[in-house]
Specification:
By secondary structure, the protein is of the alpha+beta class. It contains four helices and twelve strands; from the N terminus they run H-H-H-H-E-E-E-E-E-E-E-E-E-E-E-E. The chain is globular, with a radius of gyration of 19 Å.
């Protein structure tokens, strides 16, 4: 019986994502429907998580606490040391999956807005592309349209990370074609103006292969995302603190 309910939950979540993408031009209707769909997703998600028992709930709470601690402490360059003083993390669960997007069970009522950072305890997940009252859509960093300003954690070299749909990898392009680059190097977010859509210092991933393109204007490499995008559950959305 429980297995059947869980399967129905997953089917409903996928259907909601499909409806969300199909009705993209109908924003007013989406906002109205979000309140209804969000309430259903929240209730269904809570029921599904309850099946895992108290131990699963305690683990999620511990992960949430750890995630918030990480958000509010280290991980940002000195130039952006005040970012987390101006922002806070809104915890949410992934309740639906699309091709290169997910739906989370937190929306405008929790302070979630468009064009803000979404991450988990491992690293960058993506950015919010639409927010209803109780749910929001998140575009993953592997999406073809994703472009994230990046900085090498060691050398400080700047570049851009773009999505590679279907491969589970990212492509890094450094502005300096002669910049040092090797497998194992860590890539973090450079940060956006006003910290939107991306705050600085969030792990993006690890270089797995340096590409050799003679005469190229940039230095390129393949990057494996730090976050397991195919197994997302608890995430945090970085939003401005109330009144700021």
């Amino acid at each position: 019986m429980r297995r059947a309910v869980v399967l129905l939950v997953l089917a409903a979540a996928v259907s909601l994502v499909a409806i969300d993408r199909t009705l993209a031009p109908l924003t007013p209707l989406r906002k109205a429907g979000s309140a209804t769909f969000g309430a259903v997703q929240n209730a269904v998600g809570a029921a599904a998580r309850a099946f895992a028992g108290d131990a699963r709930l305690r683990a999620a709470e511990q992960e949430n606490a750890q995630l918030r601690a990480e958000l509010l402490s280290a991980g940002t360059p000195a130039a952006d040391a005040g970012v987390m003083g101006r922002h806070q993390g809104v915890a949410a669960h992934v309740v639906g999956f699309g091709r290169q997007s997910v739906t989370i069970d937190a929306g405008a009522a929790a302070g979630v807005e468009r064009d803000v950072t979404v991450l988990n305890a491992d690293g960058l997940v993506g950015k919010v592309t639409w927010a209803g009252p109780a749910t929001a859509s998140v575009s993953l960093i592997t999406d073809a349209g994703s472009s994230v300003g990046a900085r090498m954690a060691g050398s400080g070299e700047l570049g851009v990370v773009t999505g590679m749909p279907g491969e589970g990898l990212l492509r890094l392009s450094l502005f300096d074609p002669h910049a040092p680059l090797r497998p194992g190097d860590q890539v973090v977010t450079m940060g956006s103006a006003g910290s939107r859509p991306y705050v600085a210092g969030v792990p993006i991933g690890t270089v797995t292969e340096v590409e050799s393109v003679p005469g190229a204007a940039t230095r390129t490499a393949l990057v494996r995302p730090a976050a397991r995008l195919s197994a997302l559950d608890l995430v945090a959305v970085i939003v401005p603190r109330p009144g700021r």
